[in-house]
Design a protein that fits this description.
Layout lengths: L10 E2 L11 H8 L4 H14 L2 E4 L3 H6 L1 E2 L3 E2 L18 E5 L12 H9 L8 E6 L3 H11 L3 E2 L16 H21 L3 E7 L5 H8 L3 E6 L2 H13 L6 E5 L7 H19 L4 E8 L4 H10 L5 E5 L24 H7 L4 E10 L5 E9 L24 H8 L8
Parallel strand pairs: 1-13, 2-4, 2-5, 5-6, 8-9, 8-11, 9-10, 11-12
Antiparallel strand pairs: 3-7, 12-14, 13-14
């Protein structure tokens, strides 16, 4: 089964990390410079840079007046919303909040030190900071030609600093195009995403913002709460349904049945004739599920699996480092080519900014194939000696085949 391997990213993915030391003192000194002409020039430089602005003031102050395009996360909420910040190598500007009196520990320095917090020797890349006040929004903004907005922005129109996973941002639009082509022949349908191990929900909310209905599954209650809050922030709470479930204890059959019921209920609710089902895993490993999905999923389904591959244990990060937590080269391709009606669209590899290799695997079950699910393939088909999967036999021989070329 030939797949469009050329459609894979091929090479590094994401914004490259930039190793920088955050000079908090220099940022505060520049932000508190009393010369209005200097501040106007700094504001013009920010506008010309295309850098996003994070506004740390209270929501009421943000709604009263703000710079056009700024994103509000009140400083008091920041610790629980760090997942809403951009990748650490992405340039960022920060509008600080005024401390609430002399006893407030949230000084300008303290606010900026949050972004200097070390994470794998990579703090956030804050390139400029500003101090709020009448002078900034009136005289200085006027001199700089900065647009000042006011009023509450609709939730669905709020900007964001966070980004989905690179592979998700690449592949959801491609799946949408493919399903639109199919719908032209078979009638309108809707896309349903099953996000396995959804975490804080950036990928789930990204999909919902594109019009998908999302079943977000995770065992971590805190992560699901953050996912729900992020969906609410962007006005797509009704499109993201979080369910707490231990994916390692639920059988593949029960998991697929849950997803099929969700898709059917959603189709009925929106009066669509059917739904396109996509299973997606981002940095989540469940080998029994990967082996079972080819036989269980219905025609028209997609699988996207973006997880650490062999070699991650050799990077400076060194994790994950156990065989059960790493994908082998060709493992997913072998599993899905053994299934009936599957087309491998991509079997490639990308790298995170920290150097760890990640799979970029996407497969689609062609429409018109059998709709029944759960049927077992004949034992040994597409396998190595003794009925083992071919990738496992290659791994034991030490001759892993790279399918990414």
């Amino acid at each position: 089964m030939g797949g469009d391997v050329g459609a894979c990213a091929g090479g590094g993915a994401g914004d490259a990390s930039v190793a920088v030391d955050l000079d908090v003192d220099a940022l505060v000194a520049a932000a508190t410079d009393p010369d209005s002409a200097t501040q106007a020039e700094r504001l013009r430089a920010w506008m010309g840079s295309g850098t996003s602005m994070l506004d740390l003031r209270a929501e009421k102050d943000f709604e009263r007046r703000r710079f056009d395009g700024a994103v509000n996360i009140p400083f008091g909420d920041l610790d629980g919303r760090l997942h809403e910040l951009p990748p650490r190598g992405t340039p960022l500007s920060v509008l600080l909040k005024q401390p609430d009196g002399p006893d407030d520990a949230a000084t300008f320095e303290a606010q900026l030190r949050v972004f200097a917090a070390d994470f794998k020797s990579n703090p956030w890349r804050v390139e400029s900071a500003f101090v709020p006040g009448d002078a900034l929004f009136l005289e200085i903004a006027t001199r700089a030609g900065a647009r000042v907005a006011s009023g509450a922005a609709p939730r669905e129109a709020r900007g964001r600093l966070w980004e989905p996973s690179d592979a998700v941002a690449r592949w959801l639009p491609r799946i949408e195009r493919r399903t639109r082509e199919e719908d032209a022949a078979r009638g309108a349908a809707r896309n349903v995403l099953v996000d396995l191990g959804c975490g804080a929900g950036r990928d789930a909310v990204f999909a919902a913002l594109r019009g998908w209905h999302v079943l977000a599954l995770d065992s971590d209650a805190k992560g699901l709460a953050r996912c729900a809050a992020l969906a609410a922030t962007h006005g797509v709470a009704s499109a993201v349904r979080g369910v707490r479930v231990d994916l390692r204890k639920e059988t593949p059959e029960a998991l697929v049945a849950r997803a099929v019921r969700e898709a059917a209920a959603f189709s009925t609710a929106v009066r669509a004739p059917r739904a396109h089902l996509t299973f997606m895993a981002v940095r989540y490993m469940n080998r029994p599920l990967t082996r079972a999905l080819p036989a269980l999923l219905p025609a028209g389904a997609f699988v996207c699996w973006f997880h650490f591959t062999r070699g991650a244990e050799l990077t400076p990060v060194g994790r994950p480092n156990k065989a059960r937590d790493l994908l082998e080269a060709g493992e997913l391709r072998d599993a899905f080519e053994r299934g009936e009606g599957w087309e491998v669209l991509c079997d490639g590899q990308t790298a995170l900014p920290d150097g760890r290799p990640v799979s970029e695997f996407v497969a689609a079950r062609r429409c018109g194939e059998r709709e029944e699910t759960g049927e077992k393939r004949e034992e040994g088909v597409g396998s190595g000696a003794g009925g083992e999967p071919a990738w496992e036999e290659r791994r034991k021989r030490g001759g892993i085949v790279d399918y990414t070329g």
